[in-house]
Amino acid sequence: MEFLHLYPTEILILLFLIITFGISFIEKLTNWKGTLSYITKTFEATFIKNFVKPLIIGLIILEICTLLFLLFGIYQLFFLEEKEFGLLGCYFSCLSILYMLIGQRIAKDYPGATSLTVYFILSVFGVFILSN
After folding, report:
1. Is 83 exposed, middle or buried (0-12, 13-18, 19+ CB in 10 A)?
2. Is residue 127 a contact partner of residue 90, using CB atoms and an 8 Å limit?
3. What letters, b where the CB count within 10 A reaches 16 and e where it falls short, cover 54-67?
4. Among residues 82, 84, 66, which one has the least CA distance to residue 123?
5. Neighbours of 131 (CB within 10 A)
6. What is the pLDDT of residue 6?
């Protein structure tokens, strides 16, 4: 239990991001047709309308990498008291959110883009705290 006293902030950030990206990834896979339909509709009036499927696949790959690094980060923090994988998970979280932000801005979904700010701030804070 010393682990919880040494790294409470790091653990909470990693757990929050694991839940966020885990649910996002699972939703995309379990409702692939719905996801594809929704995102295709979102981008139908943009220059990326013909690239929606590969872009979603790219996002899923980013989310998988993010999720794996975050999970290994919790494991590494718990057993080895090292932060490298957690830090990589937060980096990948930032990249994933920036990827989504670009899409939201292209689609002119400004409220959606704004809602990503909270996740980005937490991810950047994770990078900050795990790099110290």
Report:
1. buried
2. yes
3. eebeebbebbebbb
4. 66
5. 12
6. 86
Joined together, the tokens standing for residue 77 give: 């923090």
Angle in degrees, CA 89, 57, 84, rounded to 5: 10
Name the nearest CA neighbour of 92 among 12, 2, 14: 14
Q: Which two tokens stand for residue 100?
A: 């989504």
Closest CA to 130 of 91, 87, 92, 89: 87
Distance CA 83, CA 19 (A): 19
For residue 66, pLDDT beyond 80? yes
Which has more confidence, 52 or 5? 52
Residue 108 predicted with pLDDT over 90: yes
At residue 53's C-alpha, the angle toward residues 20 and 90, to 5°, is 30
**Whether residue 3 has pLDDT greater than 80:** no
Mean pLDDT of 88-112: 97
Residue appearing with tokens 């409702």: 31
Taking the C-alpha atoms of residue 91 and residue 83, their distance in angstroms, rounded to an integer, is 12
